[in-house]
Amino acid sequence: MKTLSRDLSWLRFNARVLQEAQCAEVPLLERLKFLAIFSSNLDEFFKVRVATIRRLTKLKKKTRAQLDERPKRLLRAVLAEVDRQQEAFGATFREMLLPALNQERIHLLNESELSDPQRQWVLEYFRSQVRDLLSPIVLDETLHHLFLKDQAVYMAFFLAGARGKKGKPNAERVLLMELPTKRHGGRFVRLPDEGAARNVIFLDDVIRVGAAELFPEYEQVQAHTLKLSRDAELDIEEEVSGNLMAKIRSSLGKRETGYPARLLYDPELPQEVLQAIKDKTGIGDEELVQGGRYHNFRDFFGFPDFDEATFSYPEWPALPHPTLPRTGSLLDAIARRDHLLHPPYQSFDYVTRLLREAADDPAVTEVHITLYRVAKKSAVTKALLKAAKKGKQVTAVVELKARFDEESNLYWAEKLQRAGVRVMFSPPELKVHSKLLLITRREESQAPRHYAYLSTGNFNEATATLYTDHGLFTAHEGLTQEVAAVFDYLLDLRRQPTLEHLLVAPFGLRNGLYKLIEREMRQARKGKEAYILAKMNSLQDLDMIAKLYEASQAGVRIELIVRGIACLLPGQPGLSENISQRGIVDRYLEHARVYVFANGGEEKVYVSSADWMTRNLDRRIEVAFPLLDEHIRAEVRHLLDLQRQDNVKARDFDNNYLLPQAGQPRIRAQEATYKWLKGLKRQAAPRKAATRPKKAE
Questions:
Q1: Which Gene Ontology molecular-function terms are recorded (predicted)?
Q2: Residue 316: inside a domain
Q3: 288/411 same-domain check
Q4: Per-residue pLDDT for 253 more than 60?
Q5: Residue 381 belongs to domain with CATH number
Q6: d(CA 140, CA 96)
Q7: Do 353 and 292 have their domain in common?
Q8: Would residue 387 count as lying in a domain?
C-alpha cells in the first residue's frame, strides 16, 4: 500500500513552519518565533523520533525484517531531509530575517561588527554581568568523563600560542562551559541605541568579546558553540508492572542522562576540539550534525520586542461567548441548552468559571476530570483543590505519561492527593488522552443531574491561548450518562460500557469510524451523495488509510485537513483520486479534530480528542462526541468551510500554497473565524448552509 513515511511527513510539517518564517506578510517578530518553533520542533524530533529509529537499527536482522520500514534506509532519508532543511533554515535567518531586521534599523551584531565604543561597552558588560557566571571545564587527562546536559548550549574554547612563565610554549588546551542563558536572564543583550538604530548582540558573542580576558596567557582564543539533544523516549508503555509513579520519577531522571541523539556543532569548530569532546563524552560520528554558528534558536522567543506593535500579530482579544452568560450561573445556562466554546477565539475562562461555580455550589456533590497536560500555574487544578476543600468528591484521572509534561502532571497529582482528591492514573499500556469534565448536582425533587464539558483541547489555560479547539458544554442526558460511563471505565477497565452516542477508544472508536465510512461507501455505490470531511492533527494509521483508499475507490468524496503528519497519498490514480488534502499553519496551532459524514443527507458531525494514528485508535483512551444540536452542527460546519476555502495559509500535500484564483477574494481561515465569531450576536445561531465537498482535483 502506498503511503508516506511518518517521519518524512513530520519533516514536511516542520517545513511548513519554516515557510511562515520566510513569509514577508507575517510580522517580523512572529517570523522569528516561527524560526524558534522550527528549531524547537526539530530538537524534539531528534530526541524522540530519530532516537527511536536509531534504536530500531540496532535490532537483530530478523526482527528488523518484520518492521513496516527498513530503519537504516529510513534513517538515511530522514537525515538527508534534515540536512536540506537545516540549510534552508540558515538561509532564512541570514538572507531573509537579518536583512528584514536591518530594514527596521534593528541590528543583530556579532563581535566582529562592533564599533570601538560598542566593543568597550560590551567588554564592560561582560566584566560586570557575565564573567562571574562562567565555569569552564578543562578537557585534559585528569577529566575521565564529560557529561553534556540535554538541550543546553555549550561554548568550546581552543587555546594556543604564547609562552609560559619559564619561556616554554603553553600547551594547547580545550575547555568547555555551559552558556549561562538562564542565570543571565536571556540569550540577547541590548546595546545602547545609536539614534534610530537599535542594536542587539547574542550572549555568545559577549563572551567572545571577553574571552581574551578569561585566558590572558594565550594569544589565540577561539570560541565555538555546540548543543546535545538526548533520547527522550521513555518507553513506559512497554512496562506492565510496578509502581507507575516511581517509574515516571525514574524515567524523568533517565531523560537527563539518555543516550545522545544529536550533537549539533559549529562547522568552524577545530577538529582537535571536536575529537576531544568525542573522547570525553563517548559520542560517535553518527550523532554528529553540522549546524550554524548559533544553536537553540528557540531562544528567539525572548528576542526584544522594542515596543513596536507592528512587529507582532494584531491583538485578537478573547471574545465573549454569544450564548453563555458573562456573569451569573453557567450551570443554569448549560441546563437550558448546549453551548460550543472555541478557544482561543473565545475565552477559556468559561471552563475555569464553571469549575469554580461547581466548587461553590452546595448542590454539587461530585466532580470528575481528566488531566493530560496541566499548566504550571493551573487555575483548573486550583479550582479542583477548592472543590475538595468544600467537601465535594473530586476525582482526577491524571496522565503521567504525557511526554515532556510528566513532571508538571506529577507535581499537581501529588498536590491533589494531599488535598483529598481521588487521583487515578492510567495503566502502563494506555494513555488517557480524552478531555472530559463531569459535574454531578443534586437538584430539587430530582435524581442527581450531570453536566459535562467535552473538548478537543486540554484543561490548560496557557495552551488555550495558542491552540484552536472546540469544547461542548452539555446537560444532554444521553451524552452525560455516557460520559459518566466512560469515567466508570477509567476507574475500572473491566467495566467496558455499551454506548450509543460516544465513540471511545480503544474499544469502540476505530470500529465506529469504519461503520460510518462503510455507510458512505454503500451510498456511493448506489449513486447517492457520499462524502467525508475530516480535520485532524495527524493521519498515520495504515488500516485507516487503507479504509479511506477503499472508500475513494467506491466513489466517496473525501476532503482531509491535516496539520501535521499525513501519510496518506491523495490524488493517486486508481487509489485515491477522490481524496484531496490540505493543511493550515498560521498564528494559532490548529488542534481541533472534526469528522463529518454525509449520512444520506443528514450529516453526522463528531468532534474528538483523537487523531487517526494507531496510538490514538488502539492505545489511548479517546472520545469522539456527536454534535446533536443542529445550530451547533451548523456552526462547526461553517468554521470547517472557512478552512476548506482558505487561500492564504493553506498548503496542499506537497507544501504548495493554495493561492486565490484571479478575482477570487482572499480568505485566511483563522482571521475569518475570529471576525465571524466576533459578529455573532447574543443568542444568535448560524443559518448559512454548509457547502458540500466537490470532486477532488
A1: kinase activity
A2: no
A3: no
A4: no
A5: 3.30.870.10
A6: 42
A7: no
A8: yes
Task: Name the phi and psi angles at 600, rounded to 5.
Answer: 65, 30
Best CA proximity match to 645, nearest among 589, 686, 584: 584
Residues in the chain: 697
**% of the chain exceeding 70 in pLDDT:** 91
Residue with cell 472555541: 342
Q: Is 657 helix (H, G, I), strand (E, B) or coil?
A: strand
pLDDT in tens, 401-459: 756 567 777 888 889 999 999 999 887 778 999 999 999 999 876 789 999 999 999 99
pLDDT of residue 234 exceeding 50 = no
Task: Name 356's Cβ contacts closer than 8 Å, sequence gap at least 6.
Answer: 383, 386
* 302 and 396 together in one domain: no
Q: Mark which of 277, 311, 345 sits at the end of a domain.
A: 311
Whether 41 contacts 676, CB under 8 Å: no
- Residue 52 makes CB contacts below 8 A (sequence gap 6+) with 233
Tell whether the model's pLDDT for residue 240 goes beyond 50. Answer: no
CA distance linking residue 288 with residue 50, whole number of Å: 13
Res. 692: pLDDT tops 80: no
Q: Among candidates 144, 110, 90, 91, which has minimal Cα distance to 264?
A: 90
Burial category of 25 from C-beta neighbours within 10 Å (exposed 0-12, middle 13-18, buried 19 and up): exposed
Q: Are 664 and 610 in a shared domain?
A: yes
Mean pLDDT value of segment 200-210:
96
Pair 607, 666 in one domain: yes
353 and 233 share a domain?
no
Condensed to tens digits (0 to 9), the pLDDT of residues 616-625 reads 999 999 999 9
**For cell 563524552, what's the residue?**
281
Output the known binding site for Mg(2+): 373, 403
Quote the domain boundaries for residue 408: 330-491
pLDDT in the model for residue 685: 44
Residue 130: which CATH number?
3.30.1840.10
Q: What is the DSSP string of 457-468?
A: S-S-TTGGGTEE
State how far the Cα of 435 lies from the Cα of 456, in Å rounded to an integer. 7
Give a yes or no: residue 545 inside a domain. yes
Under 8 Å between Cβ of 343 and 591? no
Do 476 and 571 lie in one domain? The reply is no
Strand 435-441 relative to strand 449-455, pairing: antiparallel
Among residues 491, 517, 532, which one ends one of the domains? Answer: 491
Q: Amino acid identity, residue 344?
A: P
Residue 143 contacts residue 137 (beta carbons within 8 Å):
yes
Distances (CA, A) of 534 to 46, 526, 531, 606: 29, 23, 10, 9
Instruction: Report how many domains make up the chain.
Output: 3
Known binding-site positions for ATP: 41, 467, 563, 591
Q: Which residue has the higher pLDDT, 107 or 48?
A: 107
pLDDT of 304 strictly over 90: yes
Q: Rounded CA gap, 251 and 299, in Å?
A: 26
- b/e code 567-580 from CB counts within 10 Å (16+ = b): bbbbbeeebbebbb
Residue 255 located in a structural domain: yes
Catalytic residue IDs: 433
The residue type of 532 is I
Identify the bridge partners of residue 431 per DSSP, sorted by sequence position. 620
Residues 486 and 509 in one domain: no
The Cβ of residue 421 has, within 10 Å, a number of other Cβ atoms equal to 25
The pLDDT of residue 236: 39
Cell of 624: 469522539
Question: What residues are designated binding site?
Answer: 41, 373, 403, 467, 563, 591
HSE-CB of 538 using CA atoms within 13 angstroms: 21
User: What is the reported pTM?
Assistant: 0.90
Q: Which pLDDT does position 352 carry in this prediction? A: 97
pLDDT of residue 428: 75
